[in-house]
Amino acid sequence: MTFGLGAALGQDSAPAQPGTVPHSDTTDNPAAPAPGASRSPAATLDRLFERLAAAKSPEEAKGIANLIQRRWARSGSDTADLLMARAQEAMRSKELDLAIELLDRIISLEPDWAEGWNQRANALFLAGDSIRSMIDIGEALKREPRHYGAMMGLGTILRQQGDDKRALIAYRRAQEIYPQFEAIKDAVDSLKTEVDGRDA
Asked: Quick one: CA torsion of 85, 8, 151, 105, rounded to 10 degrees?
């Protein structure tokens, strides 16, 4: 495995990785929309993903990814956001049962919040429950199909299970969304020769 699932699923303990969202950091300043363009959160997120795909350097892409991750961090509920901060602290402290319990509550409160599902997937994986983790990844991707962190997590689990072909599909989908992220490039490079060669 070329990177940890904490990075792939967006665990807060690795701040430089995608999907990692410091919940206390709510300041962001995306480029102003063009005149007449929608300022809705969804429209702003769409523009950020366009910029992420077109970024010319890893540094530029990382800045855009940080803005995306800050939006993912917002549930719209102060209670859910507070519970998420506590859940991430529990994960950092290796209190996985507590983290999962808190994330269960978050999902009950805000079932449409993709990051709630993504973070519970991470906690479940760390607790050794890959099957439930994959189910939660699927729920996260239903709500945010562009969640590259969840896709990387899925790829990591599939690779651990020996399903390199499907793992490569997940990694390549993540790479389409975030082409400049080195961990995704490394994951694709480590599998593509073997998988593509096997299928040739």
From this structure: -20
Query: Token pair for residue 153?
Result: 């997590």
Residue found under tokens 């701040």: 15
Determine the longest span between alpha carbons in the chain, in angstroms. Answer: 52
Which residues are CB-neighbours of 97 under 8 A, at least 6 positions away? 127
Count Cβ neighbours within 10 Å for each residue of 33-72 and write b for 16 or more, e otherwise. Answer: eeeeeeeeeeebbebbbebbeebeeeeebbebbbbbbbbb
Quick one: which of 61, 66, 59 has its CA closest to 25?
Answer: 66
- Indicate if the pLDDT at residue 100 is higher than 60: yes
Q: Per-residue confidence at 96, pLDDT binned at 50, 70, 90?
A: very high
Query: How far is the C-alpha of 50 from the C-alpha of 178, rounded, in Å?
Result: 10
Closest CA to 141 of 10, 15, 25: 10
Measure the N-to-C terminal CA separation of the chain; round to a whole number of Å.
24
Using CB atoms within 10 A of its CB, is residue 123 exposed (0-12), middle (13-18) or buried (19+)? buried
Cβ neighbour number for residue 145 with a 10 Å cutoff: 12
Condensed to tens digits (0 to 9), the pLDDT of residues 130-173 reads 999 999 999 999 999 999 999 999 999 999 999 999 999 999 99
